[in-house]
Write a structure and sequence with these properties.
Oligomer: single chain
Distance between the termini: 17 Å
Helix content: 25-40%
Structural class: alpha/beta
Largest sheet: 8 strands, mixed
Number of helices: 15
Bound molecules: N-(iminomethyl)-L-glutamic acid, fe (iii) ion
Shape: globular
Length: 417
C-alpha cells in the first residue's frame, strides 16, 4: 500500500504518546493539533505534526481541509451477533411492561435465544456482517462482541464461531467475549447448578481448545446470575486465561461490583443503578491502583429502556476510568451508533465533549486490551480514523446529535467509505 500523507487537517484529535487509561480528571484533557498533517504507512500511523513542519516527499496526498480527524471509535460492549430484531417487545414496552416483566414472560434474551438456535451459522454470520458494515461506516474501528443468545452448547459455540469468522474477515479489530451466563435457559430455570456445570464442563473446554473467546462475561443481576454464581463462572473461565468483564448494576445493586473488583475484572459495564457506596468503592479501588479496570457506560441502553443514566460525573470525580459503548443488541439498545452515544453522554450525563471523545476512543481501547493498537493518534498505532465533514468545532459533533458529521472512515490505512 503506498504511503498516504493527509494534509491541512483542521484539527487532529487525541494525539498522545502514552496509551494508558485516563482516570478521573485526566479524561478532560484531549490533546489536539490544529492545522496538521498525518502520514499513514501501510496500515499504521507513521508520523504527524503541524503544517508548518510538514516533511517533503512524494507521498500520495489527501487534503482534509476543514475536517477534523479523530481515532475511530472503540465500541467495547456489543451483542451484534443475533438472529432477529425484537420490535414486538418494544411495543409491549410502550404499553407499559418493564424490561424485567418482558423477560419473565419468556421474552427478552430467551426470545433471542430461540430465534438464534433456529438459524444456520452462515445466516447468522451474514446478519452480523451487515451490522458490522453499518457501524464501521459510522466510525467504529474496533468492537467487542459477546455470545449469550445461544444458551445451549451448540448455540453458544455457533455464536463464538461466527465472531471468529468476523474477526478473520473484517478489517475492524474485534474482541470476542463468552457470555454463556446471560440468562438461564428454560430447561434449567430451576436447576441453576446444572446450567453452570454445563458452562464450566461442556462449553469452556471447547472454547479454550478452539480459541473462541478473549474474555468471559456474566449478567450479574436479580433473576439472572447472583454474585456467587458470577464468581464461580468467572473463576472457571480465568483458569483458561479468559479475563472477566461483567454486566453489573443494570437494574439492581446486588453486589456485582464487589465481585468484579475481587475478580479484577477488565471492565465493569452498565452501572445504571448505583449506590453512593458502589461509587466510592470503585473510586477508591481506581485511585489507589488496586483496580486498573474500566467503568463502561452504555447510555443508549439507559435511553432505550428508560433507566436512569449512569452517574458519569460522580464516577469521574471519584477517580474512575470511564469508557462509552453502544451495547448494540436487539433488546435494550437496538443501535450501534457511537456518535449518538457521545451525544447522550454529553446531553444526559453532563460529560464534556472532550471527555466523551476520550471515553469512546482511548478508554474504549483500554477496555478491549487494545490500547497499544487503537484509540489515539499515536505513531505505530493502526490508522483507523474518522474524517469529519467541515464542522465549526469539536463540540459540534455531540451537539448536532442527529446530523451525520462523518465524511469518510479509514480502517487500517484504507478508506472504507
Ligand atoms: O446489556 N442486560 C443484559 N444483556 C443485554 C440485553 C440483552 C437483551 O435484552 O437481549 C444488555 O442490556
Ligand atoms: Fe450488554
Amino acid at each position: 500500500m503506498p504511503a498516504k500523507l493527509i494534509t491541512h487537517i483542521k484539527c487532529l484529535v487525541n494525539t498522545r504518546e502514552t496509551p494508558g487509561a485516563l482516570y478521573g480528571n485526566a479524561l478532560a484533557e484531549l490533546p489536539c493539533i490544529e492545522n496538521a498533517w498525518l502520514l499513514v504507512e501501510d496500515d499504521e500511523i507513521a508520523a504527524f505534526g503541524s503544517m508548518n513542519s510538514m516533511p517533503p516527499g512524494t507521498n500520495e496526498t489527501v487534503s482534509a481541509s476543514g475536517q477534523f480527524v479523530l481515532p475511530a471509535w472503540c465500541d467495547s460492549h456489543t451483542h451484534i451477533v443475533f438472529a432477529a430484531s425484537r420490535e414486538e417487545e418494544f411495543v409491549d414496552k410502550i404499553k407499559g411492561l418493564s424490561y424485567a416483566e418482558i423477560a419473565a414472560k419468556g421474552g427478552g434474551i430467551l426470545n433471542s435465544a430461540q430465534k438464534l438456535n433456529e438459524v444456520t451459522e452462515d445466516e447468522l454470520f451474514a446478519r452480523a456482517w451487515q451490522r458490522l458494515d453499518e457501524v464501521s461506516k459510522m466510525g467504529t474501528g474496533a468492537i467487542e462482541i459477546k455470545s449469550g443468545y445461544g444458551l445451549t452448547v451448540e448455540g453458544e459455540l455457533k455464536m463464538l464461531r461466527v465472531i471468529k469468522r468476523l474477526k478473520e474477515k473484517s478489517r475492524l479489530h474485534i474482541r470476542s467475549t463468552f457470555l454463556g451466563a446471560h440468562t438461564y435457559p428454560l430447561p434449567y430455570k430451576n436447576n441453576h447448578a446444572g446450567y453452570i456445570n454445563q458452562i464450566i464442563d461442556e462449553m469452556l473446554p471447547v472454547i479454550a481448545a478452539e480459541k473462541l473467546a478473549d474474555y468471559i462475561d456474566v449478567f450479574c443481576e436479580k433473576g439472572f446470575f447472583s454474585p456467587e454464581e458470577t464468581e464461580r463462572i468467572c473463576s472457571a473461565g480465568m483458569q483458561y486465561g479468559l479475563k472477566p468483564r461483567l454486566h453489573v448494576n443494570q437494574l439492581n445493586s446486588i453486589g456485582g461490583i464487589e465481585t468484579g473488583l475481587r475478580l479484577n475484572a477488565l471492565s465493569l459495564d452498565h452501572l445504571e443503578t448505583m449506590t453512593e457506596s458502589d461509587i466510592s468503592m470503585l473510586g477508591k479501588a481506581s485511585r489507589n491502583g488496586n483496580w486498573k479496570g474500566i467503568c463502561t457506560l452504555l447510555p443508549t441502553a439507559a435511553f432505550f429502556i428508560g433507566m436512569p443514566y449512569q452517574p458519569a460525573r460522580k464516577l469521574i470525580d471519584a477517580g474512575c476510568a470511564i469508557a462509552l459503548a453502544t451495547d448494540y443488541n436487539p433488546g435494550s439498545s437496538p443501535g450501534g451508533n457511537m456518535n449518538f452515544v457521545i451525544s447522550l453522554a454529553c446531553i444526559q450525563m453532563k460529560m464534556l465533549p472532550g471527555e466523551a471523545i476520550n471515553a469512546a476512543t482511548s478508554n474504549g481501547a483500554c477496555a478491549m486490551g487494545l490500547n497499544n493498537t487503537l484509540g489515539s493518534i499515536t505513531p505505530g498505532k493502526k490508522a483507523s480514523l474518522i474524517f469529519t465533514r467541515p464542522i465549526p468545532s469539536l463540540a459540534y459533533l455531540p451537539y448536532a446529535f442527529s446530523t451525520n458529521c462523518i465524511n469518510r472512515v479509514m480502517i487500517g490505512g484504507e478508506f472504507i467509505s
